[in-house]
Amino acid sequence: MGRKNHYGSRSLRGTEVAALIYTICETAKACGVDPREYMRRIILNELQSPGTITLPWPIEEVMASV
After folding, report:
1. Alpha-carbon gap, residue 56 to 2, rounded angstroms
2. Is the pTM of this model over 0.85?
């Protein structure tokens, strides 16, 4: 998806982070979850309890707990 967009990346790390974010967003879409809401939940859950994993498919349970 982002191959042509990454030609101008300044660093390998920047390209890796962009690929990770694309992957998270596309996975959320494939699971029928709004990517923005999912990213918001990931960030909130990480701030509340560092090291936790927030998967897109049980998002209703995560939303109920926050």
Report:
1. 22
2. no
11/9 Cα distance (integer angstroms): 6
55: left (phi over 0), alpha (psi -120 to 50) or beta: beta
pLDDT (0 to 100) of residue 16 = 83
The residue among 9 and 25 whose pLDDT is bigger is 25
Q: Which of the pair, 12 or 26, is modelled with greater confidence?
A: 26
Q: Retrieve residue 8's tokens.
A: 């101008």
Tell me how long the chain is. 66
Closest CA to 45 of 35, 57, 53, 34: 53
Structure tokens at 9: 């990346």
Tokens of 64: 């109920």
